[in-house]
Amino acid sequence: MWPRWGSVSRAHRFHLEVDGHSVTVQTRHAARETELLVDGKVVGYQRIPTRHRPSAIVLTAELPGDPPKPFAVALHSRGSAEDAPTCALEIAGRRHAMSESPLIRPGTVPPAAGRPALRSARSLLRRTLRRLV
Length: 133
Hints:
single chain; 133 residues; mainly beta; Lipocalin; eight-stranded antiparallel sheet; 1 helix; 8 strands
């Protein structure tokens, strides 16, 4: 059976506004790739090998300004795959929780629960047709 919408996501996005700057953390492929963005520009990236999954990933960067303000973002994964990771930003000795942002565009409707994504149906059809030809 296909997972229900929003139950187990392989990608996450966390966001926080800090001193007039936008800080975003995005994960892809079950948190094997992590990007850190400041004001929409990638300032940090980490790729974790398939077999090694640490419980926490820490990325560091600086907020623009004079002088620049260094900060760190810690992404903590939970014990099981069903649990969503948590993310926190640490700047000037203070820790701020980053809220998770939806990965769909505003105004769009999520796919119906229990139905596979269209891309999955297409790839299944292609594989089946290749076997027949």
